[in-house]
Structures are given as structure tokens and as C-alpha cells.
Amino acid sequence: MRSVIHYLVLLVSVNFIFTGANAQQYTLLIKGGHVIDPKNNINAVMDIALINDTIAKVAAHIDPATAQKTIDATGLYVTPGLIDIHTHNFIGTIPNRYLNNSYDAVAPDGFTFRCGVTTVVDAGSSGWKNFETFLDQTIKHSKTRVLAFINIVGEGMRGGPYEQNLTDMDAKMTALTIRRYKQWIVGIKVAHYEGPEWTPVDRAVEAGRVAGTPVMIDFGGSNPPLSLEELFMQHLRPGDIFTHAYAKVKGRMSIVDDNGKLRPFVLEARKKGILFDVGHGGTSFSYSQALPALKAGFYPNTISTDIHTGSMNGDMKDMLNVMSKFLNMGMPIPELIKAATSESAKAIRHEELGNLSVNSVADIAILRVEKGKFGFTDAQTKEQGDSKLVCEATVRAGKVVYDLNGVTR
To answer: For the chain, which has fewer Cβ within 10 Å, the N-terminal or C-terminal residue?
Structure first.
């Protein structure tokens, strides 16, 4: 009799264990948030269930009893983790190196997760000669996913005369380096060249052709300025990226003319497939460009910061501040999220990122729109706004890595 009772107790215990395991099949559930996932055309209140580092289910209702932990996202936006495709993260301790292994670059993790950013793309801080140092020193030690455009200048973004050295712009070595480190390198960057030559652009495009990657152009300066129309229509290819799209700086042609009109060839360049990136930076965003451009319906393809110690402490601040500027200029939230997620992933040719598809990595931002009276600045002017994006929490590969107000607890 005793053995029968023991057997029955054991059977009930085993059944309870398996029932409980099935009931809590998800490790994390984000419930009741307004999900915006542009790649999958989702713009509705939905639940998202995770199994470890992977998105397992997206549905209108998922039973909380099936999850080990639930986050109540009611009243909040739930989006793919944001992707900032123009950053400077090659931090180091060598003086007088501008953004190359230097004090002016920023360590990714301290300035990404608090803004909902889970992936950054360093924009040309390293070149083929020192990418390995960047990889070993920063990329491999970051919880943030760090990818890179490498500079067409072999020495990278050392500043000053080093970035003017045409003899250090080697298309072959750049392409070979990209092939060797294709897990991390997404393309080539041209930046800061001062002069009338097209050589830096053409060598970068040649490296991109050989390696099968896009080129990001930070148009330097020349007197008189080089023609943007010639850049777009004769030198760049579909899929190449023009960053600092809304800049108004000396020595560089702007996309909006002195009469406040969008130059017609800009629309032709977009039809060709040229991508326009914000790349805010310290002085590379101007309301005199952005306001008329957005009024004409010319939204950026991608939104990025050009973050470094100067821009983050100046008018740029951070990714959400840049996005808030565009929100207050009339860019709808779904378009903002698209420009900072799926379109950015597409631009760097990593379309496995920037979405909430089932079986994709669980990189997720939980955002809210704060209402109030806010000031937003460029180098010359101040604009008022009544809305500001704030990050409540960030999930990177299934783990909560930032929580502003304890919503995940």
C-alpha cells in the first residue's frame, strides 16, 4: 500500500513539473505595448515573447502564465533595438589622434542602451592599418553590437594632415581588410578631405566594388565647393550613403539652396538609390536645411548621431534627442522608427537586424513620448518642441540592459 501511495505522489510531482515547464515556456514577455516593427508592417498593440536571446512569438495576446517574467509595456512603444549607423567608438589613450584610438571617441555601452540603441556602426575611425586594434580593444569588449565602416585612409581618422594623404588611400588593402573581417566591417568611409580632387571618393567606391559593400561619404570641403550633383550622379552607386545630409557648412554644397528650395538633383539622386543619413555631429545638422527639406517631404533614409565627446555635449546630445528633433519637425513616429531600425539595417546590409521577426535576436527598445516644452538646437538656432522621446528600457539579446524607472522589475 505504501509503495502505491509513493508511486502516486511521484506521478503527481512529475506531472506538476512538466505542466509548469510547459506553462512557462517563455523566459520574458513584453505585454501590452504599442509595437512598431516597420519591416513586418506591425503598428498595433501587441505582445512579444522571448525564449532566452530569441524572439519566439509576436501576437495580440500571449498569456502571462506562459512566461517566467512579464514586463507591462502599456502606454509605451515597443520597437526593434535602434541602430546608429554613424558613431565614433575607437576609444583609446593616445593623444592628438582625434577619433582614432583617442580620448574624443566614446565607449559604446555607456551611451547606447540608455537610448534604446543596441547596434552602432563606427564611421571610419579606424583604417585598414589599425582596425585590428579597434576590434581587440573595443568591439570584442562591448555588450553593444559594434560594426564598422573603415576609413579609406589607412591610418584612419587621425585628423589634420593625416586625412589629406592621398598616398595612404589604398583601395586594394581596404577591400582585403573588409573581406578578412566581414563579420564586423560593413563598408568604407570617406571623411574630412579638403580639396578639389575626387580621388578619395573614387578609391573608396573602388574598394566598395571589390568588397561588395557600400560607401559612406562625409563630404569634406573645397573652394569653390565640389558639386553634390556630380558626386551623386557620376561617382556614387545605388546604396551608397551621403551622411550629414542636413548640414550647412562652409566649403560644402548643401541639399537646400539659399532660397530655401530643395535642389532638384537631390530627388534624382534618391531615385537612383543614394541614401541620405542624418549624421548630426557637432555642426553637421542645420535647421535651415532640415525644416525646408522635411516640409518638401524629404525625410532621411537613416537617422544617426555622429557621436563623440564634442557632439554629445553640444547640440546633438544622443540618438533620442536627434529623433525628437525630427518628431517635432513633423516626421511621424513609424517613419522615425523605420529610419532608426529596418532602414538602417538595410543600409549596412544586415537585414537580420532592426526587426522583431520570430527567430530574430531579441534586441528591443521600450520608448515613451514625453509631452512638455522642450528646446532643440543647432549651431546657430533654437527650436521649440512639445514632444520628446525617452527610453524606458532596453533589451539586448534577451537581457534587460537598461531600465529607467524599474518597468522591468
So the answer is: N
**pTM over 0.90, yes/no:** yes
Position 22 scores a pLDDT of 54
How far is it, in rounded angstroms, from Cα 27 to Cα 175?
A: 42
HEC profile of the chain: CHHHHHHHHHHHHHHHHHHHHHHCCECEEEEEEEEEEHHHCEEEEEEEEEECCEEEEEECCCCHHHECCEEECCCCEEEECEEEEEECCCECCCCCCCCCCECCCCCCHHHHHHHCEEEEEEEEEEECCCHHHHHHHCHHHCCCEEEEEEECECCCCCCHHHHHCHHHECHHHHHHHHHHCCCCEEEEEEECCECCCCHHHHHHHHHHHHHCCCEEEECCECCCCCCHHHHHHHHCCCCCEECCCCCCCCCCCCCECCCCCECHHHHHHHHHCCEEECCCCCCCCCHHHHHHHHHCCCCCCECCCCECHHHHCCCCCCHHHHHHHHHHCCCCHHHHHHHHCHHHHHHCCCCCCCCCCCCCECCEEEEEEEEEEEEEECCCCEEEEEEEEEEEEEEECCEEEEECCCCCC
Q: Quick one: pLDDT at residue 14?
A: 36
Q: Average pLDDT in the 82-110 region?
A: 97
Contact of 373 with 386, CB cutoff 8 Å: yes
Q: Are 383 and 328 within 8 A, CB to CB?
A: yes
pLDDT in tens, 363-389: 999 999 999 999 999 999 999 999 999
CATH of 81-347 given 3.20.20.140, 1.10.1040.50, 3.20.20.80, 3.40.50.1220: 3.20.20.140
The Cα 45–Cα 78 span in angstroms is 9
In the prediction, which pLDDT does 10 show? 39
pLDDT tens for 102-122 read 999 999 999 999 999 999 999
Q: Identify residue 196 by its one-letter amino acid code.
A: P
